[in-house]
Amino acid sequence: MKFLLLLLLPFVLFASKPKLLLLQTYKDQNISGWVMSEKLDGIRAYWDGKHLISRGGKIIHAPEWFVKDYPPFAIDGELWSKRGDFENISSIVRDKVPGKQWREITHNIFEVPNAAGGLFQRLAKVKPYESKYIKIIPQKRVKNKEELQKFLKSVEKKGGEGVVVRDPNAAYINKRTSKALKVKSFFDTECKVVKLYNGKGKYSNVLGSLLCELSNGVRFKIGSGFSDKERRNPPKVEDIITFKYKSFTKYGKPRFPIFLRVRNAQ
Q1: Alpha-carbon span 100 to 36, nearest angstrom
Q2: Contact at 8 Å (CB) between 208 and 197?
Q3: Which one, of 194, 202, 189, lies nearest residue 234 by Cα?
Q4: pLDDT digits (tens, 9 = 90+) for 10-69
Q5: Spatial separation of the C-alpha atoms in residues 237 and 45, rounded to whole Å
Q6: Which of 19, 49, 96, 201 could serve as a FRET partner for 65 with CA atoms 20 to 30 Å apart?
Q7: What pLDDT score does 203 carry?
Q8: Which one of 27, 39, 179, 236 is the catalytic residue?
C-alpha cells in the first residue's frame, strides 16, 4: 500500500503546466476602446475543470467545499483576499492540507480559456457560477490615456499593485500578448539573492539589505520593501525574488529597487 501511495503521489501533486495568457508591459500604446481592471496581487490559479493548477503546473490543494460548485470548463484568475496580503494568501494557498483560512480567499476570474468570442462573451460563461468564492473581475471601458492614468493612481493610492488593460475584441490567446498589458508606475522583475547583509541601528541583528544578481550578471543591493517579519526571516541565498524599480541606470542597475516577495514556489 505504501508503495502504491508513492506511485500515486506525483499525480496528486502535479498536473500539466497550463498554457496561459501572459501580459506585456504598457508603453504608451493606443488603448482607446479597451477595458481596464485592477491587477490583483495574489496567486494565479487555473481551473482545468477538475483541479486548481498553479502557473508552474502544481496542484493547488483547495478544500472540496471551495471548488464544489466550479464549472466543468476551464477558468483562469487570481486567488486573492485583499490588497497588501500576498504573504498571507501565499501561505494559505501553498498549504498541502487546506484549512478554514481558505474562507478568506476568492477566485477572481479574468479569463475563460478555450471559449469563443470576445472577452465579455467569454466571461459571460462564468456568470451562472459566480458565488461567494468565484468572482468575475469588473472591466471598465477606457476612453483615453488620461483616464487610464487617473484609474492607475486611484488603484495605487488604495495600495493596489497596478492595472491591466485589454483589447475586449481579441480572441483568447494562451501566450504573452500585446492585446493584454500591465500598467504600473514601477516596473517589476526577478533576481537571484547572492548575499545577505545585517542592518544598522534597530536592524542591527536582522536583515539590512540583499545583494542580488540579474539574469545578465549585473549585481545591485535592495534595502527597502521588507516588513519586520521578513527582516527577521529573510530570503535565502539562491532564492529568486521579485522586486520593483523605476528604471535602469546607464550601468544596467535598477533605480530605486524595492523588495516585493520571494518568487512563489507554486
Answers
A1: 33
A2: yes
A3: 194
A4: 344 666 889 999 999 999 999 999 999 999 999 999 999 999 999 999 999 999 999 999
A5: 28
A6: 19
A7: 85
A8: 39
Length reported for the chain? 266
CB within 8 A of 77, min separation 6: which ones? 44, 45, 107, 108, 109, 110, 111, 137
CB 210, CB 197: distance < 8 Å = yes
**Per-residue cell: 245:** 524599480
* Residue 11 dihedral angles phi and psi, to the nearest 5°: -75, -20
Is the whole-model pTM more than 0.85? no
39 is catalytic: yes
Residue with cell 488603484: 155
Ramachandran sector of residue 25 (left: φ over 0; alpha: ψ -120 to 50; beta: rest): beta
- DSSP one-letter code for 67: H
- Mean pLDDT over all residues of the chain? 91
pLDDT in tens, 130-158: 999 999 999 999 999 999 999 999 999 99
Query: DSSP state, 35?
Result: E
